[in-house]
Structures are given as C-alpha cells and as structure tokens.
Amino acid sequence: MKIVIDLQSLQTQSRFRGIGRYSLALTKAIIKNKKDHEIVIALSNLFPDTIEEIKEEFKELLPKQNIKIWNAISPTKECEEENKPNRKTSQLLREMFLSNLKPDIILISSLFEGYIDDAVLSIQEYKTKIPTVTILYDLIPFISPQKYLSHKPRSLWYNNKIDMLKKSNALLSISNSAKKEAIDYLNFNENSITNISTAVDTTIFKKVEVPSSFKEKYNITKPFLMHTSAYEPRKNFIELIEAFAQIKKEVREKYQLVFVCKLSPEQEIELYDIAKKNNLSKDELILTGFIPDEDLVLFYSSCHLFVFPSQHEGFGLPVLEAMCCGAAVIGSNTSSIPEVIELKEALFDPFNIESISSKIYEALTNQEFYEKLLENSKIQSAKFSWDKSAKIAIEALEKTVLKSTNDLKQLQNQTKKKLAYFSPLPPQKSGISEYSKELLPYLSDYYDITLIVEQKECENLYKDIKFEIQSPNWYKENKNIFDRVLFHFGNSTLHLYMMEAIKEKNAVVVLHDFFLSGVYAHEELNSNKNNFWSNELYNSHGYKALQKRFSEQTDENTLLEFPCNFDILKNAIGVIVHSSYSKKLFEDFYEKSNRQIWTHIPLLREEVSKNIEIFKPKDDFIISSFGFLDNSKQNHILLEAFISSKLSKIKECKLIFVGESSNPQYLKELKVKIKKHSLEDRVTITGWTDNQTFSNYLATTNIAVQLRTKSRGETSAAVLDCMNYEIPTITNANGSFGELDKNSVFMLEDNYTLKDLEIALETLYYDKNQRENLSKNAKKEIQTKHNPKICAKQYFEAIENSYKNSTIDKNIVIQNLSSLENLPKNDRDLFAISQAINYNFPDPLEQKQLLIDISTICKNDLKTGIERVVRAYLMEIFKNPPKNYRVEPVYLSLEDNIWQYNYAREFSSKLLNIPNHILYDEKIDVSKGDIFFCVDFNRDAIIEASKTDIFEDYQNKGVFINFEVYDLLPISNPEFFPPQNKEPHLEWIKTICKYSNNIICISKDVEQKLKELILNEKIKTKQNQKISSVHLGADINSSAPTLGFPSNKKEIMEKLSSKPTFLIVSTIEPRKGHIQTIQSFEELWKTDDINLVIVGKEGWKGLEDEKRRTIPQIINKIKSHKELNKRLFWLENISDEFLEEIYKISTALIAPSQAEGFGLPLIEAAQSNIPIIARDIPVFKEVAKEFAYYFENTNEANVLCKAIKEWLELYKDDKHPKSQNMPWLTWQESTKILLDKILIP
Asked: CA 995, CA 932: separation in Å to the nearest integer?
C-alpha cells in the first residue's frame, strides 16, 4: 500500500503549535511502523523556506525521493477574496499531483489550514477514486461558533472546510471526544472514525534534573503551580487566577502560579490586572512569555502541580507532556481531558471556579491525594505512545483502502474499452498498413476500435468485421471518449498527420522505425515547412545536431546520426517495438524513464501455405531478396557474391530482387553490372509488386538473402515473410537481425565479407539437409513467437500496463483548469500555471538539462580572462555533451521587475554558426534532476535575483546548483578594486554558499581561501555542500578564439622578432603589476636592448577615474612613454589568434600580478614552450611549480629589474627554468573533470 501524507501542517504557522508537533511525531512513527507499505510525503512549494528543514527531519527515515514537492500559484490565502482564482487553480493542481503519485490512500495531517497563509487543501475537487483520510483534532469552532466564528469571512472559510471534511472516506481522531463530536455534529458513521489518540516524544518529555539557576531566570522563589497553553478564552486563564486567589492565604502564600506561554503586552497587563483585583501580590503570578522548548521540560519537571482548566480540548497535549515529566496533574472533566488523566478524583468542573479552587486546595494540602496524583501520572503516561498511535492509524488506513477497492471493483465497467487506432491502412503502399490489416481483427477481441486515418479511401478490410473510421479532426473534438490510444509510427510521410494528434492525449506508440529523421527532413526540404527538421533536431538532440547539420555540405550524415523522435516519444506512456535493438538505441540516445514502459512484441505473421502453381520451371533454383533496394540493404554485395560464386555458372540458378528502389543511380549501377556479366536472363529486378505477386515470389523461392547495414532500429517484415514461407534465409547480425534465432536463419557476422556471403550461398545450395532444417526451424519460430493471436494478447497487456503505470496527462490537467469559472487571466499568473503544470505533470519522457549561466558573456563579451574561460568551457560542453543531458546556455535578466533566466539560444546559435532564424530566446523551465552551473561571473545580478527566491525555487524543484569561483580578491585585497567592492563580493559568496551543491574553484589556492573565509565569517552553507577545485585549460584553439590580425601585423612582428621580447598578458588593472614592470624595464633599457609587450585591454572603462584606482596613471604612463612602439608595445585589442603568434616569438612571459585566482597566461606560455618569470605568490607556484623563475613578492622596481637580469644570465647559459614539461590541462580535460564534479551520479 502506498500512503501519501500531506504535511503542509509542517509548513504553515501550525508547525510552531501542537498540530505541527503532532503531525511530525505521528508521521515519523508511521514510517517506523509501516510494515511493507510505502510512505510518501507531499509538500507545497509555496513555503520554500520550510522544505529543507523538513527533508532534514526525515533524512534518516525516508529516501529523499519519497519527499515530493508540488507546485502551485500564489497568493492563495482565503482571508483575501481576490485570491479565489489562484486557490481554486492550486487546489486542482494539488489533487491531480497527488493522484499522479499513484497512492492507494491520501492522509491529510491538518485540513484546517490556509486562511492566513498559502496552504492549499481540498478533498475530491478533482474526481479521483483515491480514498482520503483526514486527521481530526477537534470541532471547537463548529460547536461554539459564537465564540470563534463571529467574523464572517473566517466563518465561511471554516464551514467550507467542514464541507471538505465530510468528503473524507475516513477520519483519524486524536481522542474519543473528537470522534464523538464528528458523530454527533457531522453525522459521521462511527465505523469510519478511528481514535488513534496521541503521545509525546519521551526522549524529550521526561523527568530531568533542574539546575538551581533555572528558577532564578524566571523569578520563581517558591514551589509553583503551572499552566501552559495558547492564550484564548476557553483555556480559562482568568478563571484559574480567580480560583488560585480563593485558596486560603496561609496555603496560597507558600506557592506561586506560573503561566508558561507567549503573551502580547496587552494580554500581560490584563492578567496582572485580574491578579491585582483578586488581591494577589505581584510575585504570586509569574508570566514567563515565550520560552525555548528545552525550558518547557524544566518547567514540567520542577512544578509542584500542573493545572489544566481548559473548557474544551481535542486532546490536551500539555497534560500528557506534564505527566511524562513526572508532574502531579489535575484538570477539567470535559471533552478529551478525562481520557488523558482518567483518575476521576483529579478532575474538576472548568465552568465552576469553586470546583477548580477546591481541587487545587486538595492537591496542595492532602499529601495522600498528591501522592496518588504522582502515581497516576506514571501509570497514564505509559499508556500513550506514538508507535501505538501509528499502528492503529496504519490499520485504519488499510481497512479504508480495502473497502474502497471492493467498492471500485463493483463499479468497474465490464464492457470493452474504446481504443483510438492511428495507422496507415491499405491501399496505402506501406508495410505498416499491411501489418495493421493483420493485427486489427485479433486486437478487436480486446477493444472497441475506431480507426483514425487521414487517407481519403480505405479498402474494405474484412468481410465479417466493421470498424468505425474517423478523421484526425474528428478525433481532436472527440478524444475524451477514448479510454486508450495507439499510434503506429514509421519513417514515412504517411505518419505526418499523427504528429499533432499524439500531443492531444496520453497514448501508446508502436515504433516501427526508431529513426524518424527522414519524415522531418522531407517536410522541411520538400514541403516548405520552415525549420521543421531543424527544430526537431534541436528538440531531440540539442545544439550538437544542429551544428553538425549546418557545418557539413550534405545532410546525409545528420540524417543517419540523429533519429529525431523525441517529440514523439516524450508523449508516449508506453512504447512497443519489434526488436530489442530499438530499446538499445533508445538507451544510447536518451535516459530511460520510469514513467514509460517499453515492450518488445515481435512482428506478427499469419501462417501461410505455399502456392507454387505458377512462376518457375520445375528445375529452376531461385535465390531472392525482398524489399526496397538501396545501399543499406546490401543488394549490390549480394549481386557481387552471386557473380563470384559457383552458382553463377549453374544455368538453373536464378537471382531475383523483388522490390523497387527510390535511388535511380543505385538501380542503374545494379543493371549495369548485370549487363556487364551477361546475366540479364538469370538476374531479375521486379520493381514494385502487388501483394499476390509478392506472395508468389515468396512461394517459389529456394533461398532468400536479407542483408542490412547501418540499421537504425527499423524492423524487417520481409525476413519474417521468408521464414513464414519456410525459406532458408541468409542474413547478417546487423541491428534487429542479430536477434533472430540462429537455428532458424543462416546468420553471418554483422561485418561479413564478400567471401562469407559467397560461401553461404554455395553451402545452402549444395546442402539440402541444412536447407530443410532451416525451413522447419523458421516455420516453428513464426508459429510460436509471431502468431497473431499471441501478439494481439501481448499488445493488450502492453497497452494496459502502460496505462496502469501512466501518470495524469497534462492535457487533462489543462482541460480541468479551463473548466474553472475564475481561471487567473494575467500573463504572469498564466505563466506560473504553465510552469506548475510542467513541473507537477512531466512528460512520460524528459531530458534533463545542463543549464550553463553565461549571463555576462552573452550580453557583453569583453573577451578578457573570465570570458575566455566561459567560452572555452561552453565550446567543450557543446562538443562533448554529457550523456542524458541537454546543454542549454542561459542568462539572467530583469524583466518587468522580475528576475528570470532565459535560454541563450540566439547567442548559442551565433557561436556555433547556426542560422539565426531557427532558435529564439525564451524563459527557462526547470525540472527535478536539472543541473544549473554558473560558470560566468555576474555577481550583482546573482545577489539581487537570489532575494526573489529564484535559487530557492530551483533548489526546491530538485535542481542541483553549482557555481564557479574565480577568486576572492575583492575581499582579501579590496585596495585593488573599485571602492565598495568588498561587501558585495562577500554577499555574493554568502549567496552561492547558501544554495550551491557544489562550488568549483579554479585553483587549490582559491579553494583553501574560500574554506577559511567560510569558517572565519561563519557563512551558512548548504547541507552536504562540496567545495573543490579544477584547473583551467590552456589550448586557445578550443575556446572559440577570436580571429583576425591588425593591418600592421607584419611591422609589429618584425619589431618583436628583432630583439628579446618579454610579454605581459593581462587586463590593465591596479593589481597586475604594470607600473612596477615598466619601471624595472626603464632601468633595464639603460643596458639591455629588449622589448616589453603588454597585451590586454584597459580595465573598468565604465567607471569614473576616481574609482579606477591606479588605472589612469598606468594608461598615462604607457601612452606618454618615450619607448612606446619602439621597445614598449601595448596591444590593446588583439585577437586570440594574434596572441598565439605573439606567444611563439616571445622570449619569456612575465607574470607580475600581485594577486590572482589562477594565472591562465602561465599555462598558455607553457603550451608555447616559452619561459616564465613570475611573482612568488602561492597560486603561481601551484600552477607553474618548478617550471618558472620566481621573483620576490614586493612592489620595488629594482627587485624585478634584478630578477630579470639574473634570469637573462641563466638564459644565456641555458640554465633557466623551462616550461615545456610543465603539467597543464587541455580544455577538454579540464571540462571532463569539471563535469564529473557537477553531474549527478
């Protein structure tokens, strides 16, 4: 039994009250005592801040996949009338989502929620047959409406909830008193209500040692009487004060009365005034205000007497809590409280102050009675346990399911289910139309079938069976009358009309051809359907398929490589194939879904008897090949083998190709070869034949040869026809052919040779016994596995299993929503509904997304360091997309004051040279299992977007969130950055730490510093967060490099090649060490004729000069330098292509930066085998290790000058550190390591 528990009571304000504690404890106990039942918890996405906490509560008890989040639209709170459309919509979404979980029963932990918050609860708004059980706490407002329901909106809400409650199949009451109320006031059948009672957590509520400081904390100086509850009239706070005041002073003055509860200032004043009016001194009444949970146990454990004077309770949990902590307890004699206390002498009349007072007096003055109260607490507290309550609850749920199941069986309709059947039919020239003609009579034993066809005429298929035949348009209007829908799909335009129809309703698909690319390509290329194939390439296979198509001169390879069937398969709740090879192909291209059942049903074949009264002369030996002629059927190889075999010399041996060809050139080449070998009278190509003629050829054939190459999941009816006619058949193990019984056909290897085929032909010709054995085994195989009756039964079982396993069709959801009177109308709400539907009701087959945030590069590619990294990672992921993930670059945008992510399709198309008229940007949709990876640096937008809960929403939807961290320099070295950069960067770090499953740093140095920052700043991190590092790649050509050369390239290269050239590659920023380097070269130029080349853009151009630190000074120094364009060169806007050439002619790279996250130029220098002179900072040593020459980390120009002089001396003697053996990663290697870290195993 599958039990789904709605636990919104742990998400609303109830989580801070008794109902929340009750729901949590009972659910945990049900899970612990569940026997063989499966427990699923359902939560709402409208309380995002509660979801992680709830998951944490159950992490040791329940697999994380058993906590389901459903999406609704907000606000829904019922205290605001304008929320009604949202609420009604969300109620329907919730019920249909729960139904989708396929529960045997639904348990609602608290129905009376949603007046002042966005809890969404309802029963049977959507006409489901799933029984619902509700926990009943009490009916206090219903019984006393004048006290609790005087406010009309609240009264309407409460009474509406009562109406919902009455729709429950059963109730679980928390006391006999609550049960009796439901019977007396709501006319519930006694047998449909079970008292499961309640309990407390005895690991928390138990007698404990009370520290001496505890009473001082609350100004308690004497033994005390205690009461705790929410403050409301029925709890009798005032009456308890008055009762306490009536006790004789000499007794009373020995005690204090303590109210343990949260009170408003006005309530405190009211209570103190009552105490004063009743002549109680100020210290006789103690009001604690809000206390932590641990202090509540201390109060219970240290009180002299616990008094509970409530007039009406559903159970009275504080009574049991006090008893478990060893307190003496007295209480009211009304509602449920006597069930808890049980001892009659301990009860009083809560409506009589004298009764309350006298019972307190007795407990304070009668030691024997007091001891009895203490003993009673021990006895009573042992009677209640959550395990006991859970077992009773489970038993009640089992009985409810059993009753509901029996009722349902009695109502089940015994008539045949109505099946809509989509397929081409004769006289259409199609193997599938003939197949359907054979299948339909047998399938009609199980279903009432309506044929949905587009063709204008259908043959009178059968003499004795009449099928209703309707058009696709008729089906669109009448689809809801069908219980089942079956589509036959093949790689032919005859199936085009089905492509829209399959989106209308859940259906089972018979996939005769796994590859449907031919249909899509034909329509785009020959029928002017713009982008028809291109869009399906993208939908099915992503950017890689589109890039391949538009990067090659012909479409042939794209047609053969990409099946283009995802749009068909994603709507199929079940798929029927005729070979396991198609299932293998599916698993090669897509991730298997547990929402979709795949069934292998062999092609059916009716038994035939041979008719050989015509066609061949008695002594002829006929070798035939059946079906379309083309390269993939290997007809040319069969012809070649026949020619080279002994059979070509035997005049009685004839070779017949029974079929036509759609490739005139291929047909011409066959005929030329036949003529060349003078075999016109022995080798025949028939062209298209009708069914009778085709059968006659089968009946007269001695050996059949059916070959394949490049199989794309299609199944061959022809080979089964040959076996059915008991023809010894030669085939090869390609695709589905490899599944044929090896004793029933003469099986060649997939990649057979011409000689292998030649031997096979000669073997079967000369070995009559082997021919007879193959004939006999082939016939047996057809009779046992391909019998139409057997296959039709398998169809019925496959269809029914698919529907049994299926979830609610999102089209049904949309239809139900559209019938609502007040459906939300504005675009924002409609989009929210669309997202909720897509999340709650996923297609039977989905593709998980790898969402790559490229927000900055997408909008403004500055082509600096980070942009080059983003581009490199993106290109590698495009080139080698991870299996089972769609690669989708995305960008963050602020639209109509709402932060949202959009697909970066237009940017990606431009990057991959895909025509710009195919894909367009739109808002993203996320699903469970998607991966979000922010590889770009978009700090401020990320911070602002996070404030709108965008990442919390993704997290709660099951998206795995990952961020790349390049450095922490604005925090560690704020002096190197524009003013006011430290705090935003720290805020960004806090944001990504809160939401990230993985944080990937670009170096071990950054990783270690991030971990230290988290520790020092006490930054809150996501549970089980992993922080690691991956070095960047270095091969420029893999990063979609910018191309092109300046007009004066030759002049520049000549100047740089004329003398030793030292290179700096970096944006011009304060930390990069440009001033120090230029100053050191000014000294060097006095003695050495060398070049200094600076490659990099001017940084922070968009800021005022006063915020740019030393950048204006650096720029001025470069531009005004007397050596500019002589021995000092600034190449500000050069391409990656030109930079690569600069590297190759440089003498050494200088890396003078004072702080970095990585040091990519060091790697690029090593790739070009040029030496490295680097500042001695940890990250440079991590990257370059011993393969660089290091200078002291100081800003003194003379230090760098001295280091370069020393390096030049080493260089002259070839003793300088060399970079060619320095380890570095390619972008392909770096990307693979990165993906291994962020992708879910």
From this structure: 11
Q: What Å distances lie between residue 211 and 215, 216, 224, 295, 301, CA to CA?
A: 8, 10, 16, 11, 11
- Cα(330)–Cα(44) distance, rounded to whole angstroms? 40
pLDDT of residue 736: 85
Integer Cα distance of 1141 and 1168 in angstroms? 9
Task: Show the CA angle centred on residue 1076, arms to residues 1071 and 1077, nearest 5°.
Answer: 100
Instruction: With CA atoms as reference, report the closest residue to 1088 among 1127, 1132, 1115.
Output: 1127
pLDDT surpassing 70 at residue 1167: yes
Residue 830: pLDDT band (50, 70, 90) is confident
How does the average pLDDT of the chain come out, rounded?
A: 93
Residue reference for tokens 């972008």: 1227
SS3 for 1218? coil
Cis peptide bond prior to 141, omega within 30° of 0: no
Q: Which element (helix H / strand E) includes 319?
A: helix 317-324
* Residue 1211, burial from CB neighbour count under 10 angstroms (0-12, 13-18, 19+): middle
| Mean pLDDT to the nearest integer, 522-526 | 92
Q: 1074-1084 and 1197-1212 helices cross at what angle (nearest 10)? A: 60
Is the Cα dihedral 731, 734, 739, 742 positive or negative? positive
- The CA-based angle 843-846-850, given to 5 degrees, is 140
Contact between residue 1152 and residue 1200 where contact means Cβ atoms under 8 Å apart = yes
Q: Are 242 and 274 spatial neighbours (Cβ–Cβ below 8 Å)? A: yes
Show the DSSP H helices in 962-1048 as ranges: 969-972, 982-995, 1004-1017
Alpha-carbon span 16 to 26, nearest angstrom: 16
List of E strands, 926-1037: 931-934, 960-965, 998-1001, 1026-1029
Residues 6+ apart with CB under 8 A from 959: 851, 926, 927, 928, 929, 930, 931, 932
Sheet holding 898-903, edge to edge: 898-903, 885-895, 848-853, 931-934, 960-965, 998-1001, 1026-1029
For residue range 1181-1217, what is the model confidence (pLDDT) as tens digits? 999 999 999 999 999 999 999 999 999 999 999 999 9
980 CB neighbour count, 10 Å cutoff: 10
**pLDDT (tens digit, 9 = 90+) per residue, 460-505?**
778 788 899 999 999 999 999 999 999 999 999 999 999 999 998 8
**What is the rounded CA–CA span in Å between residue 249 and residue 246?**
8
pLDDT at 1045 over 90: yes
Rounded CA-CA distance 40/963 in Å is 31
Q: Say how far apart CA 1106 and CA 1126 lie, in whole Å.
A: 31
Answer for the pair 18, 317: CB distance below 8 angstroms, yes or no.
yes
pLDDT tens, position by position, 973-1030: 999 999 999 999 999 999 999 999 999 999 999 999 999 999 999 999 998 899 999 9
Q: What is the pLDDT of residues 130-183, one digit of tens each?
A: 999 999 999 999 999 998 898 999 999 999 999 999 999 999 999 999 999 999
Q: Which ranges of 1073-1196 would DSSP assign to H, the alpha helix?
A: 1074-1084, 1111-1119, 1136-1145, 1160-1167, 1178-1184
How far apart (Å, rounded) are the C-alpha atoms in residues 790 and 782?
11
| Exposed / middle / buried, residue 1105 (Cβ in 10 Å: 0-12, 13-18, 19+) | exposed
How many Cα atoms are found within 13 Å in the side-chain-facing hemisphere of 239? 24
Structure tokens at 154: 């609240």
Give the per-residue pLDDT at 1133.
87
For residue 1142, the one-letter residue type is I
Amino acid 690 reads D
Distance CA 487, CA 1236 (A): 39
Q: How far apart are CA 427 and CA 414, in angstroms?
A: 35
pLDDT of the residue at 522 = 93
Output the CA torsion sign for 350, 351, 355, 361: positive
